[in-house]
Amino acid sequence: MSKSGVVLVHAQPLVRQGLRYHLSGHPDFRISGEAGNGQQAIQLVDYTDPDIVVIEVDLPGVNGLEVARAIKRSHPNIGIVLLSTEADEALMIRALRAGVAAYLARNVPWEELLKVLQDVRRGDYPINDLVLSQPSIAALVLAEFRTIMKDEDVENIYSPLSPREIEVLDLVAGGRTNKEIAAKLAISNQTVKNHISSILRKLAVNDRTQAVVYAMRRGWIKVVQPNEIQ
Asked: Residue 150 domain-assigned?
């Protein structure tokens, strides 16, 4: 796999300099450009077409979440990593809706940010594991899924998923992590990952949350109530 282009969007030049320092020498990444505000970021992304954009939420003018939305509308395949001052539940859900791939506190250690960038580089959406692992946030997300289902006809059509894949997806909908699913089903963590990859491929969706919505709308898995989430 060739190096992934990264655009850095942060109001503080010193922060961008620090990120550039770490990423420039890494074999998986190259810096495609930097921007200090939202308008610059959108124009830069249009010009450079990077693989990943790291965006601070608190940008001057257009905030980072709006920048993320604008980028995902015109470049849906770009992975967005959103940096925030705190783990705000409402903001996290808005980031999920906007198609953000990862949501992190901006003071995370470099090693944690690097791991997330590598996950996003592979096409993963770490934000889904973050949301579904927190019961209060997962309950809000699943409540929205139930509202969607009330407004649409449920399609009870043949499922292309195997019984085991349905079982895995049902546990994902319940907010279980890969490790918890593995323990519940007495299988390895890698086997869980393989099942999830197969599910995404069969349903032609990009991430776990989309797979859950897809399956719920068709009645393949139950709609989890908030008090069912452990």
From this structure: yes
